[in-house]
Automatic annotation (TrEMBL):
It is an enzyme of class 1 (oxidoreductase). NADPH binds at residue 112. GO terms for molecular function: homoserine dehydrogenase activity; NADP binding. The keyword Aminoacyl-tRNA synthetase does not apply. PANTHER family: HOMOSERINE DEHYDROGENASE (PTHR43331:SF1). GO terms for biological process: methionine biosynthetic process; threonine biosynthetic process. NADP(+) binds at residues 9-16. It comes from the Bacteria. Belongs to the homoserine dehydrogenase family. This is Homoserine dehydrogenase. The keyword Oxidoreductase applies. It comes from Paraburkholderia rhizosphaerae.
Length: 447
């Protein structure tokens, strides 16, 4: 049988990695897919650069795919069966993906921003045109988490997902904790090692992780992708001192993407999170990714691996190409639904605003070292119904020549609703003895 023909849009890290893996493992991939998979055309902004990259991979001119700077020509080419979008972003990538779908081509993409923001439009267009949109590489790089959620765990009522799904921030947090370097130095290291997005703001402000959490949430709970409802907080404001205090209390701070089935809706949030140091997730270091999925039947399951990089991401892209190759002649009704649930059975369960989320909290207070300060604070917490789980008070530091002292008090609370803790913080900050804003971090026990 003729190989299935792929048109590649973009030939950067992921595009060239995909080409390399497909070429190296072509025989095994063919045995798995039932026919060959051939990258027949590549569209890039700079064809000379792509030609050089192909040459570096060792592709001789004769066997080389046709390279063009005309993206539409590839998307419109009747000989192309699958368009693999490796451009990224939500601009031109969206237009090209929709055009490919209207041309009745299947799409494989690693573009988490595109699906988190425009997923509903794209999946509807795919349904209308009878094609598949495959996106394993969009979440946690080489970890087959989409496959696990959509197929392997399909018997379960998923209860929660908590994941380290951004390698850049995990690398930064590991470096800050292990080597005591500051945030800026650690970020520079992550950029030099190629982990960060083109705009590292998306990494450090939690946006990249929120795109991925949004996609997982939709698949886990059968709701539409709703990035605009996600709570997003990154690590750029995280102080090194909180990493140290958390350590003293037996916790590590990780940027987690969390989505959970709660009483009144679904939680969908990304923020720095304290987790007990003994949890496996707490020990995921450097740029590695890991996702815990808790299902009612299976309990907790953990998926670990490389969340970025040329070949790990290509591993997921090629898996999608094989899936599409196997299924492209199947009746569309017999394919696995894009969001795991049948498209006409998606639920309108709301995504909860952050005020309604339930969590434990780490609170750091800077206080004047005077009699009664702790009593005032604990009274406010008790009046708000917040129970204290642990407390750490540091030695007083002299802050002026008159012997005036200040100290840090760190409180760990039991689980409570966020709006309650915010009310308590407002009252605590109004105390004359509390000398600066309270630092609040959320905690998960992951029990
Ligand atoms: N910048 C991302 C990360 C790459 O650091 O994990 C994969 O999405």
């Amino acid at each position: 049988m003729e190989p299935i023909k792929v048109g590649l849009l973009g030939f950067g890290t992921v595009g060239s990695g995909t080409y390399t893996v497909l070429r190296r493992n072509q025989e095994e991939i063919k045995r798995r897919a039932g026919r060959g998979i051939e990258i027949a055309r590549i569209a890039v902004r700079n064809p000379a650069k792509a030609a050089k990259a192909l040459n570096d991979i060792g592709v001789a001119d004769a066997g080389s795919p046709a390279v063009t700077d005309d993206f539409n020509a590839v998307v419109d080419d009747p000989s192309i069966d699958i368009v693999a979008e490796m451009i990224g972003g939500t601009g031109i990538a969206r237009e090209l993906v929709l055009r490919a779908i209207v041309n009745r081509k299947h799409v494989v993409t690693a573009n988490k921003a595109l699906l988190a923001v425009h997923g509903t439009e794209i999946f509807e267009a795919a349904h209308a045109n009878g094609v598949m949109v495959a996106f394993e590489a969009a979440v946690a790089g080489g970890i087959p988490i989409i496959k696990a959620l959509r197929e392997g765990l399909t018997a379960n009522r998923i209860e929660y997902i908590a994941g380290i799904i951004n390698g850049t921030t995990n690398y930064i947090l590991s470096e800050m904790r292990d080597r005591g370097v500051d945030f800026a130095t650690a970020l520079k290291g992550a950029q030099e090692l190629g982990y960060a997005e083109a705009d590292p703001t998306f990494d450090i402000e939690g946006v990249d992780a929120a795109h991925k959490a949004t996609i997982m949430s939709a698949i886990a709970f059968g709701v539409p992708v709703q990035f605009d409802k996600a709570y997003v907080e990154g690590i750029s404001q995280l102080a090194a001192i909180d990493i140290r205090y958390a350590e003293e209390l037996g916790y590590r701070i990780k940027l987690l993407g969390i989505t959970r089935r709660a009483g009144k809706g679904i939680e969908l949030r990304v923020h720095p999170t304290l987790i007990p140091a003994k949890r496996l997730l707490a020990n995921v270091e450097g740029p590695m990714n890991a996702v815990v999925v808790h299902g009612d039947a299976v309990g907790a399951t953990l998926y670990y691996g490389k969340g970025a990089g040329a070949e790990p991401t290509a591993s997921a892209v090629v898996a999608d190409l094989v899936d599409v190759t196997r299924l492209h002649t199947a009746d569309p009704e017999h394919r696995v639904p894009h969001l795991a649930f049948q498209r006409d059975r998606l639920s309108d369960t709301p995504i909860l605003p952050i005020d309604e989320v339930t969590s434990g909290y780490y609170l750091r207070l800077r206080v004047a070292d005077v009699t009664g300060v702790l009593a005032d604070i604990t009274r406010i917490l008790a009046n708000t119904g917040i129970s204290i789980d642990a407390l750490l008070q540091k030695e007083s530091e002299q802050v002026d020549d008159h012997g005036k002292g200040e100290t840090d008090i760190i409180l760990i609370t039991h689980e409570t609703v966020e709006k309650n803790v915010n009310a308590a913080i407002a009252d605590i900050e109004a105390l004359r003895t509390v000398v600066s804003k309270v630092t609040k971090l959320r905690m998960e026990t992951l029990n």
